[in-house]
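Re: that chain you flagged

S.,

Sorry for the slow reply, it's been a week of failed gels. I finally had a moment to sit down with the sequence you sent. For the record, here it is as I used it:
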Amino acid sequence: MNIKENLLRIKESLPSHVNLVAVSKTKSNDDIMEAYQAGQRVFGENKVQEMVGKWEQLPKDIEWHMIGHLQRNKVKYMAPFVSLIHGVDSLKLLKEINKQANMTDRVIPCLLQVHIADEDTKFGMNVSELEELLSSDTFKKLNAIKVVGLMGMATFTEDSKQIANEFTHLNSIFESLKSTHPKTDNLELSIRSMGMSGDYNIAIQCGSTMVRIGSHIFGSRNYN
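Prediction finished late last night. Pasting the structure tokens below so you have them in one place:
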């Protein structure tokens, strides 16, 4: 498995407006450094503890993205360094991120997670919950976070038409929110994070500006 070749092949295939998050969860520091030496600087982890360990040991110009479901009691561990939190699915979580960001004197960029899949196992908010959050006085007072976009995961299915419909739905929610919620100090919608190894090409066709790719770069995961 040649990580460098895989990475460069994927980067060449991506349009210039699409950013690549290399999903490094369960992967070794050596694997990450191979991608780093090939020019990759943005890596995604889904477990806070694992991400903190890697942040401590690896080059400090790496941008670490938290792409997994995030528990409020774990926010404090990554608040000093995390570059983007992908899966914010409640105002409670946003308030905790804001609190911890204030304590580390940072503003932490976040994506709101939208539930677009058929599966109940996927996290995320629906349109009315998104509207309620962005319109709330509580949200407007949060001064140490910045909501910079939306994230969503499609249903795990072979049906590419269904996947495209779900990604298109997310894109239309993004456009609608962007037109009804103008830019403020803590809100500037620009990122549509959708698409993983199996469906990122469909996601890009449906408006994605950020894809999360792991196995196509690093090979299949080791969960032992």
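What I noticed first: The mean pLDDT is 95.

Talk soon,
D.
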